[in-house]
Each structure stands twice: as C-alpha cells, then as structure tokens.
C-alpha cells in the first residue's frame, strides 16, 4: 500500500484496488475535449484508452522502484 501511494505521488496517476508494482495504473482524466481526442488517437503503446475518460498505462517494476529509492 505504501508503494502504491508513493507511485501515485511520483507519477500523478491512480492505482486500482489490489495493485502491485508492474500492474497498469490509471491515468488522470483529460483536462479538455481536445486533450481527450488527442489521447484517444495517440499511437503511444504504453497508454491504453477504453473511453475518453478512462485510460491506463504500463509502469514497469523498475519505473516504480527507481523514484522510491533514496540515495
């Protein structure tokens, strides 16, 4: 749960229930119709849109752990 909260803070995303590092995260809703259209038409393989208001993206375990490790 702590890693999920730190991931939310580091990447400005949301995590679904029972999320584990490496699972998809939820991207914030687009701020305008134009941004939503652009996101829906995007060829970005990491972002998957189910509708204009609901998109997810992949964060690898390494991406999740790197910002959390303090030096």
In the CATH scheme, what's the topology name? Antioxidant, Horf6, Chain A, domain 2
Question: In CATH's first tier, which class applies?
Answer: Alpha Beta
- Give the SSE order as H and E letters: HEEHEEH
Instruction: Give the full name of the CATH homologous superfamily.
Output: Antioxidant, Horf6, Chain A, domain2
**SS-based class:** alpha+beta
How much beta, percentage-wise? 15-25%
Straight-line N-to-C gap: 22 Å
Order of strands in the sheet with most strands: 1-2-4-3
Strand count, sense and barrel status of the largest sheet are: 4 strands, antiparallel
CATH architecture: 2-Layer Sandwich
**Tell me, what's the shape?**
elongated
Q: Domain count, please report it.
A: 1
As a whole number of angstroms, the C-alpha radius of gyration is 13 Å
Task: Count the DSSP helices.
Answer: 3
């Amino acid at each position: 749960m702590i890693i999920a909260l730190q991931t939310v803070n580091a990447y400005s995303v949301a995590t679904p229930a029972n999320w584990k590092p490496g699972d998809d995260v939820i991207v914030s809703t687009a701020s305008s119709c134009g941004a939503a259209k652009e996101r829906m038409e995007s060829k970005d393989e990491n972002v998957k849109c189910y509708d204009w208001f609901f998109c997810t993206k992949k964060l690898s375990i390494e991406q999740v752990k790197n910002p959390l490790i303090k030096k």
